[in-house]
Fold these 3 entries.
Entry 1:
Amino acid sequence: MLQKRACYSGLLRQYDPMTETDLPNIASDTSAEPSGAANQQRARAYNERLVLSLVRRHGGLSKAAIAKRSGLSAQAVSVIIKSLEKDKLLVRGEPVRGKVGQPSIPLSLNPDGVYLIGLKIGRRSAHVVLLDFVGCELASLQTHYDYPTPKTVLMFSKRAIKKIKASLTKQQQRRIAGVGVSTPFELWNWAEKIQAPAQEMLVWKAFDFKKEFSSFCDFPVFIENDATAACAAELVFGHGGELADFIYFFIGTFIGGGIVLNHAVFRGRSGNAAAVGSMPVVDSNGVATQLIDHASVLALEERLVAADLDATSLYQSPNDWSDLGKNLDEWINNTSKHLALAIASSCAVIDFTAVILDGAIPTDVRAQLLDATKQQLIKLNPKGIRMPDIYEGQVGAGARAIGGACQPLIARYLLDQNVLFGEPR
């Protein structure tokens, strides 16, 4: 789990330069090859992704354990492991001796095999992270603003990525798999909500990330909805290790969500699956509203402003809201009621095993909100619906930036049906 790893803050660890000059890519595009060769290449890519995904999910695995879990032959596993070791993606651990037979050698992901950059574009801040192959956060840079503009975000991104690259050796830079951009869906439509000039926000509609980023970074760029990206981070580095399916809620300035089915993020036809903020709920007056109007940090901000209190601490001191008093208590109570309705509605459609609640909120507030939501679900008494287990997220406030970094990881190295079978990204 991400928060349990020994991670570095702000500085990158150095190691002996690798001899390779190119980052290995487990690709699935073989359209230029003859039919037979293309099929073999696809099978090899699938199997390599399968092995890497199993090792990531279960930790150190021996060749025998990999063969058993994957269904591949021992010979096939040996060939795949040899290739992944050559590419510096897997490393061998110390032999483990049993009572009989040869000792088994666990294989683990090589932290230095791949580097991943994630950029989160938020309504109040932007955040860039650098992760290694196992999800350890090696660098983190943030900036705050009243509202996001392409110019502001681009300047910050250019400065942050330049700083990250400068702290890596040339060999390490070649192992950057890409940058994943985690951004709200149709950001330009939220101008009124965040009190931003509509014309300035409208520039986002024609903004081409890949074109603009190509001027200062020479690796692939991946774009993902911010809440879906956060869900991917939970899948790869959090509860996804033990849960095959769940619905995910992330409370930021607004609330967003994601869906995991069969160990993969379900994005939907437009990439906006689990747009939970738009889910209809009923307010205390019996009026139909949306979840976003109640379960969001913006709703708490509006509550504080209405009480003539300073709301800047919500974003500038996101780890401590202890001085918010009854306004925070009232927000938790109101948010939990509407979250319970949203959870019950979601589980009436898909029989989820679990619900995961995370957000850019203090951990103690998240725990209080989770407990309150559980109590509200009991009060609902939703007959005919089997209530799921509810968990706190394990990635935390940085999930959207970390989820951005997950995009090149998923696209190039993990078993994901959206990649393998051609769902648009």
Entry 2:
Amino acid sequence: MNVIEINNLTKTYGKSRGITDISFHVEQGEIFGLIGPNGAGKSTTIRTLLSLIYPTSGSAAIFGKDCIKFAPEIKKEIGYLPSEVFYYDNMKVKDLLKYSASFYKKDCSKRMKELAEIMDLDLNKRIDDLSLGNKKKVGIVQGLLHEPKLIILDEPTSGLDPLMQQKFFELLEEENRKGATILFSSHILSEVQRLCNRVAIIKEGRIVTVEKISTLQENNYKKFKVEAPSDLDPQHFNIRGVNNLKAKGNQVSFLFRGNINTVLKKIAEIEIVNLWIEEPDLEEIFMHYYEKE
């Protein structure tokens, strides 16, 4: 079953960019990544999905229910962390979290303490005494304290130090093991690579591709580096399937997608000293998607 279904979602803001014709689905129990640079439309997609803003056209459903029509009912089962968190300054952390828990009509006090301990968050501090990173932790605890079936995170790690990021990822993996579905937006590729099963790449308000992480990494591309005894003519590798061709003296590097034999034949035509063939990281694949457009 699909927990999230997004069909041709469009949100226009006059001249400034919104999102255009966004479609993807998130399956029950998966960790799905929405990835793109800042300003690509990730937050707009998430806010429209949560009916915090309304679409210009298109539709979205969560748990099979229309996002606008059933918004209050759906939100009981969702944990949401916006990219920036703003709070009532003069409250203590625990009071804010208790207030937040009261909306879900269930006792979250035990879970609240567990999460605060994992995230190393002092519940007795006042909100306005907290650093940016600690405010982010409050947002994380607030998003997870009612044990939601669907967790939606918008750029969740900004402000967290590397150790906390590690703990946070472990926490998400644990929630996922317990059955939660996660939608995770980020512009940091290593995070998505670590956590997600599938990923939608978004650029300038449109989805460029939806792929399995494993497919992005394995089937599509190989990274080649060729070293010759003397200067190489990069034009020699100007064949179909070659991208990101970079030449420097006697070395040429490129990404290749397609039948690997065609490249090996090309390489066999010239004298070489060394050859490297590797899996590219998402960063390189990602840049390729962006340059290709």
Entry 3:
Amino acid sequence: MNPIRPVFIISDHTGITAEIIGKSLLSQFPGEAFATESLPFVDSQDKVEDAANRIREAWKVSSLKPLVFATMTEASARAALEATGAVVMDIYGHFLGMMIGELGRPAVAVKGQSHSASDAGAYHDRIDAVNFSLAADDGLSTQKYEQADLILVGVSRSGKTPTSLYMAMQYGLKVANYPLTPENFEHHSLPESLMPYLKKLRGLTLKPERLAAIRSERRPNSTYASLATCKQELDQAYNMLTDVGIPILDSSTRSVEEIAAILRQSLLKGAK
């Protein structure tokens, strides 16, 4: 087994940007072992020095040079991290330097701008979208479907709710979701409440084995979680959706982020 290398994700605000980029890069090295520590809101010199000391201590304990993913807007803070001798991947510093060279003007350091509430309109849209997705979760409030940007359809535990909420929070999209149940399958067609909104519908599916594993965590040794039930429901859902031309996305090996990005792209293409 490979030794565990310390990894730090450091930001003077939420750290969302550094975390997304850092974890994406780390995932490209599946054979390596990493111990990741996130340090958000490192927004004073004292906190920067504390973070630097943690990096040095981790290096001493592990005997491996730490990896540091950082989004620090202050040049002095970036310099303090680099002084540790760790492998510092300074996301802002690297790209800001490139942009300054091209634009010919200095950047204005504003902490947390990319994930702040300073854009009141966008922030309000995201909150509205989250409230909508909660209200229209799991087949509730079908009368609100006229307001929906997207309606996810699939069998129970196919990933509809987390995807709906992620798209609301990340993109400000109003996403409803509707679960297909044995009662729906008895009628061999989509519920009437969905039929006026076929252009908004997207199906989610997954491999029967994956669905059975997910359901078993909730109801072990049940008919609901059996492989036979999962396969039957997935086949019936697939037939119902394809009969009316609904695009279907397999979520078996995709993260919520990937699923959401693919669905959003399909909406953008459909709007052209």
